[in-house]
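Deliverable D5.2: sample structural annotation.
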Amino acid sequence: MTREDRYLVVHQTRDHDPTDYENLLADGIESAFARGIQELDDLVRDLNRACVPSPGGKPWNEDMFINEMKRLGA
């Protein structure tokens, strides 16, 4: 195998298994995308509708979502 043939699957680079919170958030995002939601404001509204927990337990808003994705490295 040459160096050019090597690649990493994203899950090979993580340093821990996803937490329950991360799994719930991922499930909420995937569910919204599966229903065709593409805009940030619609995604945030859907996370709140689905009662996906946010940091600090407050309702999701766009800034909070962006900051959380940055924090999680997404």
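Annotation notes: Helices lie at 20-34, 40-49, 62-72. The first helix runs from residue 20 to 34.
The annotation will be released with the project's public dataset once the embargo ends.
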